[in-house]
Amino acid sequence: MKFIGVILFWVLSLNSIGQTLNNDTVWDLFLNDVKVKYRFSLKYQAMLPKAKFGDKLEAANGKEITINGFYLPGDMTGYIFVLSNSPSIQCFFCSGAGIETIVEMNIKKDEMDKFKKLKTDDYIAIKGKLRLNNTDEEHLIYIVDDVEFIKRIK
């Protein structure tokens, strides 16, 4: 009987992953269901992150998520955008918080103008499709594709 209860719990847990993951669930997974090690990159001659994602994150890969965070422009061209768990003063570059606290955003073309109007550290809500990355050194470990702007929270 215990075995059936464990199987039922497992099936119900997997079923919830099929739904759109919300902000609290997503940040919890991003911060707690990954192990990041740094390895030397011959290409870049620097130590770069290599992520090992947990089972829950792997199950969420490719799923639609909604997430809130602090908007950060990623470059001077205005085409690279990052969402952070913390404002820029506490970003992982400055405080050593870790690569798992930021998300690369690939914005839908028809949504681009909305993002170009934002200011650094605007707290926003977005939705898109999660893509985990542990192979491409030119991108972050968390990527959200087809990003749509939901709202500016503050």
From TrEMBL:
It comes from the Bacteria. This is DUF3299 domain-containing protein. It comes from Maribellus comscasis.
